[in-house]
Amino acid sequence: AKTCHWIRLLPAAQSDYAPYFYDNGPHSNNGNLALFSLSEDTPKGTQIYILNGTDPEGQPVRYGLAFDPGSKAYFHVDPNSGMVTLIEELDREVVFVTDANDEHPQFKNLPTIVDVPENTPSGSSIFKVQAVDRDTGSGGSVSYFLQVTAHLSHPFAINRHSGVLRIKPGEALDYERSRIHFVTVVAKDGGGNYNGSEKMMSSSATLTINVIDNQDTPPSFVGTPYFGSVYEFSSPGSEIFTVLAKDGDVENPNPIVYSFESGADAVFDINKTSGCITLLVYPGLPHLQLMDLNNHCPTFYGESGSQNMFELTMYEHPPEGEVLRGLKITVNDSDQGANAKFNLRLVGPGHMLQVVPQTVLNEAQVTIIVEDSAAVDYEKSKFLTFKLLAVEIDTPERFSATAEIVIHLLDTNDNAPKFSCDFYIARIPENSPGGSNVVSVTAMDPDSGMWGVVKYSIFGSGSDLFFIQSGSGIIYTQPWASLDAEVKSKYTFYVKAEDTEGKYSLAEVFVTVLDLNDHPPEFNDNFLEKTMILGVPVKVEAIDEDAEEPNNVIEYSIMKAKPDNIFDINSNTGEIKLKPFIKSMDIVQNITNQKDCTWSVVVQAKDRGSPSFSTTAIVKIDITEATQRMGPLAFFFMQSRENPLQMLGLIGGIIVLIVIVTALVSTAMFMRTKKSNKILPSQRILRKRHRYHKQWNFQNSFKQEKNCKNIVGKEPVVSTTQTVNCNNNSVSALWSHPAPRSAPVPPPVPDNSRPGEEPKLVSTVPAMMRFKPKRKCCRSKENHINTALVSEIKLRREKKKLMNRY
């Protein structure tokens, strides 16, 4: 048995930069102890390995081992020699797990910006890059490199083991030539096994180095050469001319001090701060004006003399308004006055650059300024060519000069990856094995080098069953994934394309799981029992769990019947019915020759998928008469199932009949109501005035009560020629006190007496006494008279209102 304990190596050195281990592979007995294995029966005290490392500065190193907290220390290392010794017996239950190289190196201090003075000596260390890889063995060791492109040339080098960045020997930084450097650092591991093959993982990041200006450039005069005039009437102290100079270190300029180097001869003086030249003595000679001959053309000069070709290397998209300091161009016309005046013009693609100044007298330093940063694009053109023209203005000859400016562009990471389309549609059959290819996505990054490397990833709620190869963009199903269209047939997620600096774009992926015919139709039971009423079909039904048509479309057929040729089946609905010639139980019994009318049918349910699946069921059908189980109306409805139009006609007839009856009843009620509101002549009320009023007294009241008792139980007789008042009873009532003529007649007093009881006398407002007749005919007559009375009162009120109006 082999065992390997996780350990952490701690090399230490008294130096500026950390030492590192040599990686000699998993089968070596010296190096970084990566993937080292040991037999469990190794005796205690055996020297098993030698740690081997070095320091970038060449200083001595010391070695050590550290174990996880709480774990047992099995090894000891000599701090000087690196010799590792087994100090404890090994435990055979310890399991050795081999690491896979599945981790990228990760930078700990990049990207970042570093400021470096331009006078830093060559060979100096300016930064230490740090990256870690969580893999073990060779896959966990990290080496450093600088990315190199065709037009990129920088004065830096990096130690592949320590990550220390230095200025190359013999190289120097120059602020005036390049103020900023973009250095791409690549960290690579030592490689290792991943998914059965050797694989090397790498990462990259950008280090930005700002060059700090130093006082190393002398000042220069602006607008040279200078010409001045001294007139004969000039006096000492007169200002003749003012010169102007600027420090070459523009970011940190020093004050300019002016002085004469030669030729002043105590005649002229110059202000040391302003550059103003003044006269010290009276002029001794009269002023002479000399005429210049235009015999010189404008000429361009570089650092090495006259030249007509200038080149510059710079990064794309410089800031607008920035001066291209790498171009050292001076233009000069040796003539005087108007003959030395000329224009400068820059001819090239677009309006990317601008030349300053545009008008020159004698001599000037040419400055090129960025005008359109977006147009200076490496992806559109890797180099730019311009023509610089100098043309005289006020001379007949119009002498001119031409210089060519070629600018080589360096790429920056200014583009994000872009997918070939905004969304991808994929289809994959269900039950596809794990790891099946789903779809391939493609994104392009026009940037060069490591900036153009695209890595893919997927995310979203529907991405759990899929994974993508980060380098190729091919999307697969997970090894353990099982796609089932009946469970879920649509998946949507996003794919991300990202470059090394995190710029990215997204696209949407739609995956459809295609349904396969993997489910046969199924009946509820393989043996079904149905009761068929003669003339009414019975129905069988099977279910297919496939997700889509035609896989879940079922066709029914009769495979076998006993007796044969008796039943028909609807292939779509599964309805089973008798042949049309079987219309009575007599025919059924003649076929079977027995009273038991129970027949068996074997029904097949078959789907329309490819390949097709089918299943069968035995249906036991008991045939009976309709009248044995239901009434005639129910039997009619059951028979009407075969003829829907007959059912609809019956329902429509019933509805029409109900409407007609309702209309007749409504019309009769309306006519009766209208007739009851009219007052017939025989129903008009004639009121008689009594000549005398019988005085009421206590004795008369009891006489009245006696008379009423005699009347109880007898049907009151009402004359048809006599006017009756329901509220006051008849004119010959027991109580003859009439109601006032102008007072409305109150309604009849309700009767609360119970059946079998004698009517009670109830006193009304005029102190009348009445009783409730037992016969209903009298009450209906009284109600009719009461209605007529109310109508009469309403009619009189309407007449009175009309008379009052007129």
List the keywords.
806 residues; calcium ion binding; five-stranded antiparallel β-sheet; 5 helices; membrane; cell adhesion; transmembrane
In DSSP terms, counting alpha (H) and pi (I) runs of 4 or more, how many helices?
5
Overall pLDDT, averaged? 78
Spatial arrangement of strands, main beta sheet: 28-27-30-34-32
Structural class: mainly beta
Question: What proportion of the residues form beta strands (DSSP E)?
Answer: 25-35%
Morphology call: flat
Helix content: 10-25%
**DSSP, total strands:** 54
Largest sheet: 5 strands, antiparallel
Biased composition (Pro residues): 741-750
Protein name: Cadherin domain-containing protein
InterPro entries: Cadherin-domain_protein, Cadherin-like_dom, Cadherin-like_sf, Cadherin_CS
Subcellular location: Membrane
Quick summary:
With 806 residues, this protein is mainly β. It contains 5 helices and 54 strands.
Could you please describe the fold and organization of this structure?
One of its GO terms (molecular function) is calcium ion binding. It comes from Electrophorus electricus. InterPro entries: Cadherin-domain_protein, Cadherin-like_dom, Cadherin-like_sf, Cadherin_CS. Residues 36-93, 108-221, 306-419, 420-523, 536-634 form the Cadherin domain. It is built from 5 helices and 54 strands. The radius of gyration is 59 Å and the shape is flat. With 806 residues, it is mainly β. Mean pLDDT is 78; it is low at 1-15, 285-290, 680-688, 690-746 and 749-781. 12% of the residues lie in helices and 31% in strands.
